[in-house]
TrEMBL record:
InterPro entries: GlpE_sulfurtransferase, Rhodanese-like_dom, Rhodanese-like_dom_sf. It holds the Pfam family Rhodanese. The lineage of its organism: Bacteria, Pseudomonadati, Pseudomonadota, Gammaproteobacteria, Cellvibrionales. It comes from Candidatus Litorirhabdus singularis. Residues 29-119 form the Rhodanese domain. This is Rhodanese-like domain-containing protein.
Amino acid sequence: MLKTIPELVAEASDGLRCISAEEAFRECGGNSGHVIDVREPGEVDLHPVSGSLHIPRGVLEMKVLELSQDPQTPIYIHCASGVRARLAAAQLMHMGFTQVAAISCNIEQVKAACDNQSAAAKG
């Protein structure tokens, strides 16, 4: 039987740390982690998030090892709505990364949290 997207997301979310964008950017500022944007290039062009590294979901597994080969590297994944972020985060955990979190909010909230973190850092 084929699984629906909600079923896949529910499976991916089991045991996965899902956090707000504010929490992710705050933690990342203190632990040298990476915020990864897994949206498609056209989505990033329309709504860029300056504080994140763009690695499209389709090439994440191939590109993430160029970013870090340390399984304890903190990684925070976001997309436009949280769905792809959860699927991507689960895949990184499957690869062996242990400090992975999915940002479970929409892109406007991600952008606002990034802007707030940047303003606080300049502060």
